Amino acid sequence: MRRFTTLCSSLLALLQLLLVLHLVAQVAADLITALTDQEIEELALLSKPERLEPDGEFLAPFLVKRVPGTEGNRQVQKFILEQGKKLGWFIETDSFTQDTPMGSIDFTNIILTKHPQAPARLVLAAHFDSKYFAPGPADFIGATDSAVPCALLFDLAFSLDHYLDQFTDPYTTVQLIFFDGEEAFVGADPNDFIWGSKHLAAYWERPTLFPATPSAVPYKTPLEHIDLMVLLDLIGAPAPIFNDYFANTSDYFHALAGLESRLIKLFLVSRHKSYFKTDRQFVGGIIDDHVPFVQRNIPVLHLIPHPFPKVWHTTKDDADALDHLVIHDFSILMRVFVASYLKAHPTPAPSISKMSPRLR
Ligand SMILES: *[C@@H]1O[C@H](CO)[C@@H](O)[C@H](O)[C@H]1NC(C)=O
Ligand SMILES: [Zn+2]
């Protein structure tokens, strides 16, 4: 009898697993086919590649030294806030002071949300600080780490904003997180890194009454509103290889690869070879801003190449290290991924007038 019960419960567990796997595969398939070829082409046409050039309006402001607690960092914060205002998105800041190996340092994470009342959020995140190095002949600028990822977030927001206005599903929205203090100051202390994300993840465990929490679901914490977090890091160098880091978001990874292959077929990206390694799961861990969120069971898609760019944490990680075709490909792919995720069709749907005015 006992053995029979064990057998039954094992079978049940197996069935549950198969069901989950099936649902996961369905998510990827639905995402890949959410938009028509014509809609994907329309989205690709929204590109303004000059904005992502080293002297372009989204990238240039990030290509400066921006160590936490310094004037350069504050200038970048100012730029992020200005762009948030221009977009008209909801702006939140999470400022705090912490003792670090460099003394007491002020940090500020910045969060921009398209429709703060929407209960589910697709989060796109990157860190805007640059790593501290002792003064030397050249400054560390961190073009791939993570100036380009930050510029890509603005490229995404500005190019899709109009569609998100007309978007008919009031349930899910886009939220951008710009993390401060990702980098270690010294690195000898295992706690000396991801200062900003550690703080925000802990802060968002508590319910906030106004205004981060939608009125419809007042008892949820901001963390509970996150559907999926996509973290971009070390992007912009030639020939990146992205790996499938987490089994529980593998479907989204495969969806990205599937959308990329549609873009390749439509000749909308620069190359025919995929940037995504889909044949096996990555083994090993990378410490980055996603860690405090993964620890709190937030599903994370980590878009960081491995191996890291050759210029990683050297003063050569500057504008000369960038491959503009890679950046351009990535900007189109992210746009198509987000539009597919939100099922935001470029052609306005007639049912738009049925939406509650609050959510428009
Ligand atoms: C996803 O997998 C990671 C790594 O195995 C785990 O730490 C995390 O808790 C999982 N998240 C969810 C939402 O299940
Ligand atoms: Zn770094």
Short note summarizing the structure:
The chain is α/β, with parallel strands linked by helices. The chain contains eight helices and eight strands; from the N terminus they run αααβββαβαββαβαβα.
Give an account of the 3D structure.
GO terms for molecular function: glutaminyl-peptide cyclotransferase activity; peptidase activity; zinc ion binding. Pfam families: Peptidase_M28. InterPro entries: M28_QC, Peptidase_M28, QC/QCL. Belongs to the peptidase M28 family. Residues 109-335 form the Peptidase M28 domain. The protein has helices at residues 2-32, 37-44, 71-87, 143-166, 195-203, 250-265, 291-294, 324-341, and strands at residues 90-100, 103-113, 120-127, 172-179, 226-232, 242-244, 276-281, 300-303. The radius of gyration is 21 Å and the shape is globular. The strands form two sheets. It has a six-stranded mixed beta sheet with strand order 1-2-4-3-5-8, with helices on both faces. The protein has eight helices and eight strands. Helices cover 35% and strands 16% of the residues. It has 360 residues and is an alpha/beta fold. A hairpin with a 2-residue loop joins strand 1 (90-100) and strand 2 (103-113). It has a single domain (35-206, 222-342), classed as Zn peptidases (Aminopeptidase, 3-Layer(aba) Sandwich), CATH 3.40.630. The site of 2-acetamido-2-deoxy-beta-D-glucopyranose has 5 residues, from loops.
